Amino acid sequence: MAGTDHRHQGAGLTDGGPVVILVEPQLGENIGASARAMLNCGLAQMRIVAPRDGWPNPAALTNASGADGVIEAATVFDSTAAAIADLQHLYATTARPRHMVKPVLTPAEAARQIRIQGGGGGRVGILFGGERAGLTNDDVSLADTIITAPLNPGFTSLNLAQAVLLVAWEWWQAADATPPRQIDTGASRIAHRDELLNVFAHLETELDRAAFFSSPGKRPSMIRNLRNMFERADLTEQEVRTLHGIVTALSGMRRDGKPRGTRDSGGETAD
Amino acid sequence: MAGTDHRHQGAGLTDGGPVVILVEPQLGENIGASARAMLNCGLAQMRIVAPRDGWPNPAALTNASGADGVIEAATVFDSTAAAIADLQHLYATTARPRHMVKPVLTPAEAARQIRIQGGGGGRVGILFGGERAGLTNDDVSLADTIITAPLNPGFTSLNLAQAVLLVAWEWWQAADATPPRQIDTGASRIAHRDELLNVFAHLETELDRAAFFSSPGKRPSMIRNLRNMFERADLTEQEVRTLHGIVTALSGMRRDGKPRGTRDSGGETAD
Known about the structure:
The structure is a homodimer. Chain A is of the alpha/beta class. The first copy, chain A, has ten helices and eight strands.
């Protein structure tokens, strides 16, 4: 999905968003892709524990694809304990059960809880393990809470940046107020019902003139079916006018009674 | 997140899942990562329209990271129209407004609608555009419905495989029944309230003996605070027994009255 105004990258950033902590990540590509996923979802604070290939890592910047600020502001630590020192609530992401007595939340439920904690001024962090084996049990034991995404049980291995996106997306979505369904009617608006009835009448009149309804007994049900077809489409007022024009053009007859073939400034010559 | 039983990749696959259609993708890496994201979320049907680097693409297989079956079963088409011919419901993903009179759904709402359509036997497809500029307006115009993820308005450019993950995750999640919060208590169970009251009584008795409550007037509120601390932890029956052991060990006094320092098979010598 393309389309970003790079002048306003910070527009959606939220104070109180959780810190993303990558523990012993291997590939700069994945660190960069994680930064991009974070910024997509309004998160900007990244910490990195003992990155395998050192830091800074040019591949991270390249793969951030514009989320340079996240990479440039990332801080590096020698140990997980050092990276989490100032945090108050800590989550660990893991795909497999760790058999620890610790709450395991879905990403959506964790997002709700993190929003509550962050909204109350709490500093929250989320641990993500490296590509090879995820977090160690010792790292998981540092956290209050586990996040596990319930995925296809036959294939739960998420790419690191995909795991970051999934959790960040749920966090972002938890406070998003976008209407689930919108329709862009441009300069027009959804038609009023009398406008629909008018165009139905126009169409049905012309169909009668054209002897479309061969069986008078079937006319009522055919008319209902025609109306249903157009009613399902949530027509705009502009589209209703276009339909009037189509009926007029196809029937070869103006509303004012002029015959087929007369030139019209709003359409092509009909023959 | 690691941890997959590769013998059962198909375990979570669902008939009726939507077809993912990548239109003119550029990088095999992204095609592979999209396949991985699809299989994470139980989707297996990929179609590819005019891949820039031809097909098959070795990088796609490498980056599928085990989702080989999705790549091997992918079908390639010359045009979007050919790729969608047999579908009945078609969605187009896009980050930017296209100013078409077409419903725009969030991924979660689209997931609900796709589940309904698929559940009714409908064949559903979702178009994803290439890395450079997304779908053309002509491709978008082929779809019934647009899906737009409301992201950080300052940084809406999602990687192709990330866009696939986000939509596939919402589809998967829409039918997932995982409890939002679980706790693995292993062979134990959450303690009954009388077990808690017993350990509180044990602790408070020993604290009285140790003259912990220096001010008798503050004793009731200090006891309430102590109880709150343990009550917040949702202790298991095993943990309650461990607490009894800790109180016994630290107080240096057995329940049977033996003095501090007596060897105990269940713990260390106390001094």
